[in-house]
Amino acid sequence: MARYAYEPFPYEMPPELRGGAMGDAPVAIIGAGPIGLSLAIDLALQGVKSIVLDDNDVVSIGSRAICWAKRTLEIFDRLGVGERMLEKGVTWKVGRLFHGDREVYSFDLLPENGHKYPAFINLQQYYVEQYLAERCRDFPDLIELRFKNEVFGHRDYGDRVVVRVSTSDGPYELQCRYLVACDGSRSPTRQRMGLTFEGHSFEEQFLIADIEMDESPFGSDAAERWFWFEPPFHDGQSSLLHKQPDNIYRIDLQLGPDADVERELSNETVVPRLKRILGDKQFTVDWLSIYKFTCARLERFVHGRVIFCGDSAHVVSPFGARGGNGGIHDVDNLGWKLAAVVKGTADEALLASYDRERGYGSDENILHSSRATSFMTPKSDLERLFRDEVLGLATDHSFARRLINSGRLSVPCSLEASDLQTPSEFALVRPGMPVVDAPLETKNGPRWLVELIGNDFVAVSFGNGDDPELRGVPHIRVHPKGSRLDHTGFVDVTGMALERYGEGLTYLFRPDAHVAAAFRHPGSKAILKARQRAVGQKTLQAAV
Amino acid sequence: MEKNQINLSEDRLGPHGDEFYQELLDAHEGLSLEQSVRLNARLILLLANQVGDISVLRAALATARRTAT
Question: Which domain of life is it from (chain B) (predicted)?
Answer without folding.
Answer: Bacteria
